[in-house]
Amino acid sequence: MQLYRDIKDIKAPFDRAVVTIGNFDGVHLGHQLLFSEVVGRAYRNNGTSVVVTFDPHPLEVLRPDGIKLISSTQQKIELMQLAGIDVLVIIPFDREFAKTPALDFVNNILIGTIGVQDLVVGYDYAFGRGREGNIDFLRKQGEKNGFPVTVVEAHYEDGMLVSSTKIREMVMDGRMRDVRKLLGRYYQIRGEVQRGRQRGGKEVGFPTANLKVSEEDLCPKKGVYVTQVIYDGKIYGSVSNIGYNPTFGGNKLVAETHIFDFNNDIYGHPIKINLLRHLRGEKKFSSVAELSARIRKDIEIAHAVLVEAAQEQVLSCEDKFNR
Question: Is the pLDDT of residue 199 over 60?
Answer without folding.
Answer: no
